[in-house]
Amino acid sequence: MTHRRCWFGEYTCDSGQCIQAYAVCNGKNECSDGSDEKRCLPTDFVRCGSGSLIHRIEVLSKQLPAFVI
């Protein structure tokens, strides 16, 4: 499959697919190969009171209480 060159504001997946740059490290695989989530830093996630990890965007969107790990 041939992919186009990504535009400004887009992220180039390892597969060559283009996705919106804001979708990188959001806890969801937008790239068909998952490469948009492979290089995320631990600061992209927070630890909930229950001990589970959740992506920081989910915390912000739902205003959940959590601790940054």
From TrEMBL:
The keyword Disulfide bond applies. Pfam families: Ldl_recept_a (PF00057). Keywords: Disulfide bond, Glycoprotein. SMART domains: LDLa. Gene3D superfamilies: Low-density Lipoprotein Receptor. Disulfide bonds join C6-C18, C13-C31, C25-C40. This is Uncharacterized protein. It comes from Medioppia subpectinata.
